Fold this sequence. Notes:
The protein is built from one helix and five strands, in the order βββββα. The protein is α+β, with helices and mostly antiparallel strands. A five-stranded mixed barrel has the order 1-2-3-5-4. The protein is elongated.
Amino acid sequence: MPIEQNNIVPGSVIEGKVQGITKFGAFIELPGGMVGLVHISEIADTYVKDVKDFIKEGDSVKVKVLNVAGKKIGLSIKQAAPPKRPERPAPPPRAANPRGNSANRGDNVGSLDDKIARFLKESDERMQPLKNKIEPRRRNRYN
């Protein structure tokens, strides 16, 4: 989209210079002397605690014009960056025997059953002291 002097068009990507940094964002000087604001949420794709960790005064940055309302110009640095390619998840590991004999399946089920039984036993052992504190002791009233 063409950019004329003093006519900033929403959706366009332009280069500007960081003029000032605040705790809520950064002011960017655009061509033609106009100044826009990049809100802290539009600095980077990750959580931004301090704007100064990502940009400094005097830096030249590419920004995307989000909106223009009178003299207020909303900008974004993260939307001006080219989209990142999502990383492909690693394929699941293949079994040694892709056909899966019944013997192999039996081993896997048995080992899973063993793991579950061990987990339940350990869980009960860990919970017992807590149960002892919570539940009052029951005494035989007739003794």
